[in-house]
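Question thread 4412

I'm putting together a teaching handout and wanted feedback from people who do this every day. The idea is simple: show students a protein as raw sequence, then show them the C-alpha coordinates that encode its fold, then repeat with a second protein so they can compare. Below is the first pair exactly as I plan to print it.
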Amino acid sequence: MWGNIALFACAALVAYGTAQGWADLLFLLVTGGLIAVRYVDITRFSGETSDGEPATVAHWRRYTVKVMLASATLWIMARLAASRGWM
Protein backbone atom coordinates (compact mmCIF):
# COMPACT_ATOMS: atom_id res chain seq x y z
CA MET A 1 0.00 0.00 0.00
CA TRP A 2 2.71 2.50 0.95
CA GLY A 3 4.61 1.87 -2.25
CA ASN A 4 1.55 2.68 -4.33
CA ILE A 5 1.00 5.88 -2.35
CA ALA A 6 4.64 6.84 -2.94
CA LEU A 7 4.22 6.16 -6.65
CA PHE A 8 1.19 8.45 -6.87
CA ALA A 9 3.03 11.13 -4.90
CA CYS A 10 5.91 10.92 -7.37
CA ALA A 11 3.43 11.16 -10.25
CA ALA A 12 2.05 14.34 -8.65
CA LEU A 13 5.58 15.79 -8.50
CA VAL A 14 6.03 14.98 -12.17
CA ALA A 15 2.64 16.51 -13.05
CA TYR A 16 3.32 19.71 -11.09
CA GLY A 17 6.64 20.04 -12.89
CA THR A 18 8.67 20.24 -9.67
CA ALA A 19 12.32 19.34 -10.18
CA GLN A 20 11.63 17.77 -13.57
CA GLY A 21 14.56 15.37 -13.85
CA TRP A 22 14.61 14.42 -10.18
CA ALA A 23 10.88 13.72 -10.08
CA ASP A 24 11.19 11.41 -13.08
CA LEU A 25 14.14 9.61 -11.49
CA LEU A 26 12.29 9.24 -8.18
CA PHE A 27 9.26 7.86 -10.03
CA LEU A 28 11.49 5.28 -11.75
CA LEU A 29 13.17 4.30 -8.47
CA VAL A 30 9.85 3.84 -6.68
CA THR A 31 8.58 1.68 -9.54
CA GLY A 32 11.71 -0.46 -9.37
CA GLY A 33 11.40 -0.59 -5.60
CA LEU A 34 7.85 -1.94 -5.79
CA ILE A 35 8.99 -4.72 -8.08
CA ALA A 36 12.10 -5.54 -6.02
CA VAL A 37 10.23 -5.61 -2.71
CA ARG A 38 7.63 -8.00 -4.10
CA TYR A 39 10.40 -10.27 -5.41
CA VAL A 40 12.07 -10.36 -2.01
CA ASP A 41 8.70 -10.98 -0.36
CA ILE A 42 8.07 -14.00 -2.57
CA THR A 43 11.56 -15.51 -2.56
CA ARG A 44 12.66 -14.83 1.03
CA PHE A 45 9.53 -14.35 3.14
CA SER A 46 7.06 -16.85 1.63
CA GLY A 47 4.82 -14.16 0.16
CA GLU A 48 1.23 -15.06 -0.58
CA THR A 49 -1.33 -14.21 -3.22
CA SER A 50 -4.52 -12.35 -2.34
CA ASP A 51 -6.19 -15.77 -2.04
CA GLY A 52 -3.74 -16.83 0.66
CA GLU A 53 -1.89 -19.30 -1.56
CA PRO A 54 1.91 -19.29 -1.76
CA ALA A 55 3.12 -16.89 -4.46
CA THR A 56 5.57 -18.11 -7.06
CA VAL A 57 8.04 -16.41 -9.37
CA ALA A 58 5.40 -16.73 -12.10
CA HIS A 59 3.11 -14.56 -9.95
CA TRP A 60 5.94 -12.08 -9.58
CA ARG A 61 6.44 -11.95 -13.36
CA ARG A 62 2.76 -11.13 -13.90
CA TYR A 63 2.94 -8.54 -11.11
CA THR A 64 6.00 -6.97 -12.74
CA VAL A 65 4.27 -6.63 -16.11
CA LYS A 66 1.18 -5.09 -14.51
CA VAL A 67 3.20 -2.64 -12.41
CA MET A 68 5.31 -1.59 -15.39
CA LEU A 69 2.26 -1.01 -17.60
CA ALA A 70 0.40 0.88 -14.89
CA SER A 71 3.47 2.95 -14.00
CA ALA A 72 4.18 3.81 -17.63
CA THR A 73 0.57 4.90 -18.13
CA LEU A 74 0.63 6.98 -14.94
CA TRP A 75 3.95 8.59 -15.88
CA ILE A 76 2.71 9.47 -19.38
CA MET A 77 -0.43 11.02 -17.93
CA ALA A 78 1.64 13.01 -15.42
CA ARG A 79 4.02 14.26 -18.12
CA LEU A 80 1.06 15.21 -20.30
CA ALA A 81 -0.49 17.15 -17.41
CA ALA A 82 2.81 18.93 -16.84
CA SER A 83 3.28 19.85 -20.49
CA ARG A 84 -0.27 21.16 -20.84
CA GLY A 85 -0.15 23.08 -17.55
CA TRP A 86 -3.15 21.26 -16.15
CA MET A 87 -1.74 21.18 -12.64
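The second pair follows. I'd like the answer to focus on this one:
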Amino acid sequence: MEFAPSYREIQGLQAPVAVRRPIAYISFMKRNILLHPDPRLKKTAAPVDDLSDALRALGDDMLETMYDAPGIGLAAPQIGLLQRVIVLDCNKEENDSPRPVVMYNPEVLASSEDLNTYEEGCLSIPEQFAEVTRPAEVEVRWMDRDGKEHKEGFDGLWATCVQHEIDHLDGKLFIDYLKPLKRQMITRKMVKLKRELARG
Protein backbone atom coordinates (compact mmCIF):
# COMPACT_ATOMS: atom_id res chain seq x y z
CA MET A 1 0.00 0.00 0.00
CA GLU A 2 1.28 3.45 -0.93
CA PHE A 3 0.97 6.68 1.01
CA ALA A 4 -2.25 8.46 0.12
CA PRO A 5 -2.05 12.27 -0.15
CA SER A 6 -4.71 12.79 2.51
CA TYR A 7 -2.70 10.73 5.00
CA ARG A 8 0.46 12.72 4.25
CA GLU A 9 -1.45 15.96 4.78
CA ILE A 10 -2.92 14.76 8.07
CA GLN A 11 0.52 13.77 9.38
CA GLY A 12 2.27 16.85 7.96
CA LEU A 13 4.70 14.68 6.00
CA GLN A 14 6.42 15.53 2.76
CA ALA A 15 5.41 13.47 -0.26
CA PRO A 16 8.10 10.83 -0.85
CA VAL A 17 10.07 11.26 -4.06
CA ALA A 18 9.00 7.75 -5.08
CA VAL A 19 5.35 8.70 -5.04
CA ARG A 20 5.98 11.72 -7.24
CA ARG A 21 8.22 9.87 -9.70
CA PRO A 22 7.05 6.28 -10.18
CA ILE A 23 9.40 5.58 -13.09
CA ALA A 24 12.43 6.28 -10.90
CA TYR A 25 11.71 4.01 -7.99
CA ILE A 26 10.70 0.78 -9.70
CA SER A 27 14.23 -0.31 -10.61
CA PHE A 28 16.05 0.60 -7.38
CA MET A 29 14.37 -1.84 -4.97
CA LYS A 30 15.43 -5.17 -3.51
CA ARG A 31 12.62 -6.85 -5.48
CA ASN A 32 10.84 -5.51 -8.56
CA ILE A 33 7.20 -4.56 -7.99
CA LEU A 34 4.69 -5.63 -10.62
CA LEU A 35 2.57 -2.90 -12.15
CA HIS A 36 -1.13 -3.20 -12.89
CA PRO A 37 -2.39 -4.52 -15.25
CA ASP A 38 -0.58 -7.83 -14.77
CA PRO A 39 -2.36 -11.20 -14.64
CA ARG A 40 -0.28 -12.28 -11.63
CA LEU A 41 -1.93 -9.54 -9.54
CA LYS A 42 -5.34 -11.15 -10.15
CA LYS A 43 -4.44 -14.67 -8.99
CA THR A 44 -5.03 -16.25 -5.57
CA ALA A 45 -1.87 -16.92 -3.57
CA ALA A 46 -1.17 -20.33 -2.05
CA PRO A 47 -0.81 -20.86 1.71
CA VAL A 48 2.66 -21.21 3.19
CA ASP A 49 3.01 -24.81 4.42
CA ASP A 50 6.34 -24.72 6.18
CA LEU A 51 8.53 -21.80 7.18
CA SER A 52 11.93 -22.19 5.53
CA ASP A 53 14.98 -19.93 5.62
CA ALA A 54 14.03 -18.88 2.08
CA LEU A 55 10.62 -17.70 3.28
CA ARG A 56 12.18 -15.78 6.16
CA ALA A 57 14.56 -14.13 3.68
CA LEU A 58 11.57 -13.32 1.49
CA GLY A 59 9.96 -11.46 4.39
CA ASP A 60 13.16 -9.45 4.91
CA ASP A 61 13.40 -8.65 1.19
CA MET A 62 9.77 -7.56 1.11
CA LEU A 63 10.25 -5.22 4.08
CA GLU A 64 13.31 -3.65 2.43
CA THR A 65 11.40 -3.27 -0.84
CA MET A 66 8.41 -1.73 0.96
CA TYR A 67 10.52 0.80 2.85
CA ASP A 68 12.52 1.73 -0.27
CA ALA A 69 9.39 2.27 -2.38
CA PRO A 70 8.31 3.86 0.04
CA GLY A 71 5.09 2.27 1.21
CA ILE A 72 3.33 1.00 4.31
CA GLY A 73 2.45 -2.49 3.04
CA LEU A 74 3.41 -5.04 0.40
CA ALA A 75 2.12 -8.47 -0.56
CA ALA A 76 4.11 -11.30 -2.17
CA PRO A 77 1.98 -11.33 -5.37
CA GLN A 78 3.16 -7.76 -5.99
CA ILE A 79 6.67 -9.10 -6.51
CA GLY A 80 5.43 -12.00 -8.62
CA LEU A 81 5.30 -14.71 -5.91
CA LEU A 82 1.94 -16.37 -5.35
CA GLN A 83 2.45 -17.09 -1.65
CA ARG A 84 0.39 -15.82 1.26
CA VAL A 85 2.95 -13.42 2.73
CA ILE A 86 2.48 -9.74 3.52
CA VAL A 87 4.52 -7.08 5.27
CA LEU A 88 3.41 -3.79 6.76
CA ASP A 89 4.48 -0.91 8.97
CA CYS A 90 1.95 1.87 9.53
CA ASN A 91 3.92 3.74 12.20
CA LYS A 92 4.54 6.89 10.19
CA GLU A 93 4.21 9.69 12.73
CA GLU A 94 7.42 11.56 13.44
CA ASN A 95 7.84 10.23 16.99
CA ASP A 96 6.80 6.63 16.24
CA SER A 97 9.37 3.85 16.23
CA PRO A 98 9.19 1.58 13.18
CA ARG A 99 7.03 -1.50 13.66
CA PRO A 100 7.83 -3.89 10.81
CA VAL A 101 5.42 -6.83 10.71
CA VAL A 102 5.77 -9.92 8.52
CA MET A 103 2.65 -12.10 8.27
CA TYR A 104 2.53 -15.60 6.83
CA ASN A 105 -0.95 -16.94 6.01
CA PRO A 106 -2.79 -13.90 7.40
CA GLU A 107 -6.56 -14.11 7.63
CA VAL A 108 -9.27 -11.83 8.93
CA LEU A 109 -11.20 -13.58 11.72
CA ALA A 110 -13.68 -10.80 12.50
CA SER A 111 -14.64 -7.37 11.18
CA SER A 112 -16.48 -4.50 12.84
CA GLU A 113 -19.81 -3.22 11.59
CA ASP A 114 -18.38 0.30 11.85
CA LEU A 115 -16.72 1.46 8.67
CA ASN A 116 -13.80 3.74 7.88
CA THR A 117 -12.83 5.48 4.64
CA TYR A 118 -9.23 6.15 3.62
CA GLU A 119 -7.78 7.46 0.41
CA GLU A 120 -5.79 4.41 -0.61
CA GLY A 121 -2.93 3.95 -3.01
CA CYS A 122 -0.92 0.93 -4.10
CA LEU A 123 2.72 0.36 -5.02
CA SER A 124 1.50 -1.62 -8.03
CA ILE A 125 -0.64 1.34 -9.15
CA PRO A 126 1.67 4.32 -8.46
CA GLU A 127 0.34 7.87 -8.25
CA GLN A 128 -3.30 6.72 -8.39
CA PHE A 129 -5.47 7.20 -5.29
CA ALA A 130 -9.12 6.73 -4.42
CA GLU A 131 -11.31 6.57 -1.34
CA VAL A 132 -12.14 3.03 -0.23
CA THR A 133 -14.50 2.12 2.61
CA ARG A 134 -13.64 -0.89 4.74
CA PRO A 135 -14.41 -2.21 8.25
CA ALA A 136 -12.91 0.15 10.82
CA GLU A 137 -11.58 -2.70 12.99
CA VAL A 138 -10.47 -6.23 12.18
CA GLU A 139 -9.08 -9.17 14.10
CA VAL A 140 -6.31 -10.93 12.19
CA ARG A 141 -4.56 -14.27 12.72
CA TRP A 142 -1.17 -15.00 11.18
CA MET A 143 2.08 -16.91 11.63
CA ASP A 144 5.31 -15.06 12.33
CA ARG A 145 8.80 -15.85 11.03
CA ASP A 146 9.34 -18.35 13.87
CA GLY A 147 6.14 -20.24 13.11
CA LYS A 148 4.32 -18.80 16.12
CA GLU A 149 0.62 -17.98 15.72
CA HIS A 150 -0.57 -14.46 16.50
CA LYS A 151 -3.99 -12.89 16.86
CA GLU A 152 -4.36 -9.13 17.07
CA GLY A 153 -6.99 -6.47 16.60
CA PHE A 154 -6.20 -3.57 14.27
CA ASP A 155 -7.93 -0.24 13.79
CA GLY A 156 -7.38 3.00 11.90
CA LEU A 157 -4.74 2.92 9.17
CA TRP A 158 -3.44 -0.45 10.38
CA ALA A 159 -6.87 -2.02 9.76
CA THR A 160 -7.09 -0.49 6.30
CA CYS A 161 -3.57 -1.57 5.37
CA VAL A 162 -3.84 -5.17 6.54
CA GLN A 163 -7.14 -5.59 4.67
CA HIS A 164 -5.61 -4.01 1.55
CA GLU A 165 -2.65 -6.42 1.65
CA ILE A 166 -4.76 -9.52 2.36
CA ASP A 167 -6.89 -8.53 -0.64
CA HIS A 168 -3.75 -8.82 -2.77
CA LEU A 169 -3.42 -12.46 -1.67
CA ASP A 170 -6.89 -13.08 -3.10
CA GLY A 171 -6.19 -11.31 -6.39
CA LYS A 172 -8.10 -8.16 -5.46
CA LEU A 173 -6.86 -4.58 -5.93
CA PHE A 174 -8.16 -1.44 -4.25
CA ILE A 175 -9.49 -0.24 -7.61
CA ASP A 176 -11.84 -3.23 -7.63
CA TYR A 177 -13.88 -1.35 -5.02
CA LEU A 178 -14.38 1.59 -7.39
CA LYS A 179 -17.09 2.22 -9.93
CA PRO A 180 -16.27 0.78 -13.39
CA LEU A 181 -15.60 4.15 -15.03
CA LYS A 182 -13.08 5.22 -12.39
CA ARG A 183 -11.45 1.79 -12.43
CA GLN A 184 -11.12 1.83 -16.23
CA MET A 185 -9.66 5.34 -16.17
CA ILE A 186 -6.94 4.30 -13.71
CA THR A 187 -6.19 1.16 -15.70
CA ARG A 188 -5.77 3.19 -18.90
CA LYS A 189 -3.30 5.47 -17.12
CA MET A 190 -1.35 2.45 -15.93
CA VAL A 191 -1.26 0.93 -19.44
CA LYS A 192 0.17 4.22 -20.70
CA LEU A 193 2.77 4.28 -17.89
CA LYS A 194 3.86 0.72 -18.68
CA ARG A 195 4.28 1.63 -22.37
CA GLU A 196 6.47 4.57 -21.38
CA LEU A 197 8.56 2.33 -19.11
CA ALA A 198 8.96 -0.24 -21.88
CA ARG A 199 10.29 2.44 -24.23
CA GLY A 200 12.79 3.47 -21.58
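Top answer:
Good format. For the second protein you could add a caption like this: The domain at 5-199 is CATH 3.90.45.10 (Peptide Deformylase). The helical segments are 5-11, 17-20, 22-25, 53-68, 156-169, 180-199.
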